[in-house]
Amino acid sequence: QVQLVESGGGLVLAGGSLRLSCAASGRTFSSYSMGWFRQAPGKGREFVTAVRWNTGTTQYADSVKGRFTITRDNAKNAVYLQMNNLKPEDTAVYYCAADWRRGSYYLDRPGSYDDWGQGTQVTVSS
């Protein structure tokens, strides 16, 4: 099992930036893929971005492409989500997730992940 703790959420004006962090513990961090999802009130969990453990390949939802960047630091057992040019529609609870067991190909699917953090709230005000 992997324990995940997100931080860095908050309230920001439209056009602003935030950097979310996700600290992982429990298994060898470099051996599993990581993803970020978000969930707005009344909506389902939505894929944001992911980074594959072996190739470092990243993928992004179209809605955040060019504005958000995922990075990972294996030495610190952490993954980050840099969010720029934030929009009110980015308002949601953001979750990081770890795929340490399945080795899934489809990292944009919530079912591909084994463990989840508790989430951090991001609110973008217009």
Helix content: under 10%
**Quantity of strands, as a count:** 11
Count of helix runs: 0
| Shape field | globular
- Gap between N and C termini, in Å? 39 Å
The sequence of SSEs as H and E is EEEEEEEEEEE
Rg, please?
13 Å
Largest sheet: number of strands, sense, barrel closure: 7 strands, mixed
Which regions contain 5 or more consecutive residues with pLDDT less than 50?
Answer: none
Arithmetic mean pLDDT:
95
Query: What structural category do the secondary elements indicate?
Result: mainly beta
Strand content bin? over 45%
What does this structure look like?
The chain has no helices and eleven strands. It has 126 residues and is mostly beta strands. Strands 2, 4, 5, 6, 9, 10 and 11 form a seven-stranded mixed β-sheet that branches. A four-stranded antiparallel β-sheet has the order 1-3-8-7, with no helix packed on it. A hairpin with a 6-residue loop joins strand 4 and strand 5 (46-51).
In short:
With 126 residues, the protein is an all-beta fold. 0% of the residues lie in helices and 48% in strands.
Task: Please specify the SSE layout and strand pairing.
Elements: E1 3-7, E2 10-13, E3 18-25, E4 33-39, E5 46-51, E6 58-60, E7 68-73, E8 78-83, E9 92-99, E10 115-116, E11 120-125
Parallel strand pairs: 2-11
Antiparallel strand pairs: 1-3, 3-8, 4-5, 4-9, 5-6, 7-8, 9-10, 9-11
List keywords for this structure.
mainly beta; 11 strands; single chain; seven-stranded mixed beta sheet
